[in-house]
Amino acid sequence: MQLCLMLVSTLAVSHFASIAYSQQDNAKPPESREHWRIIYVRGKNIGYVHDAVETVNRDGKLVVVNQHSSVIDVLLSRRKDGIASDTRSKITIQSEETTDGDVLGFRYQVQNSPSATILKEGRVSDGQLQIQTKANGRVTTKSKDYPNGVKGPAYADRMLLKNPLKANETRVITTFDPRSANVDTIRFEARDYENALLQDGIEKRLLHVVVTHSIAPTQEFHEFLDEEGNSWKTTVPSQDMVVYTTSKETALNSFKNIENP
For the chain, what are the domain ranges? Predict the structure, then answer.
């Protein structure tokens, strides 16, 4: 369960850095978009992912808000009936940054049903990152230097959208990871275009990109992107995990009658 949670939250950082416009979002401002994905492990749907980026006006200043939420039920990969149970977890990640990419704050929460909730919140002020963590009925606080020049995930997202990866290109992006509250160096190694099988059984010609994170160095994420940088499919071979881009209705189908933890 913990490894699956780590992979899903790490996946969120990749998607913040490669999330792209869907057709229905073309009328929105460049910094506002939404993405739904469905998670399979061992061929069975165990959950969904929702990512959104929007720009809001706060006291006359523009703030870019990244929001990620995912609900997973690892036991579904072992159940024959495919019915979601109460043994599920919800991950919520939110980060805020200026339009120049400077991180203002973040919020990371894991709700394990029926066990306890972990909540981590942080703000950046005068070069210091103030973090408060609530877990098991205890509250802890700490402060540490925020590294100079490290931008937030929405800024990395805009850079990739402005200049999508090309075949055989390698790119390295350093960004802030709200889950670990540390710097994450993401390496994108594009291979070539290949036919990728999607959730609906249709093949699409997509660019195969291998993604690695310094916060999870032993795991490889395989992204399949179109020419505009849209992510259609992600695989994590070591965990037999496949994540497909889909509609909201399809993503929520197996969980529509289940309350979030």
Answer: 2-101+147-255
Total-model pTM? 0.81
- pLDDT tens, 15-57? 544 443 333 343 344 457 888 999 999 888 999 999 998 999 9
Cα–Cα distance between 3 and 169 in angstroms, integer?
Answer: 30
CA distance 89 to 243: 17
- In sign, the C-alpha dihedral spanning 46, 181, 19, 252 is positive
Give the tokens for residue 57.
């006006």
Rounded Cα distance between 185 and 1, Å, is 25
The token pair at 18 is 């490669």
Q: What is the mean pLDDT of the chain?
A: 82
Q: Are 31 and 231 in contact (CB under 8 A)?
A: no
Q: CA–CA separation, 92 vs 65, rounded Å?
A: 13
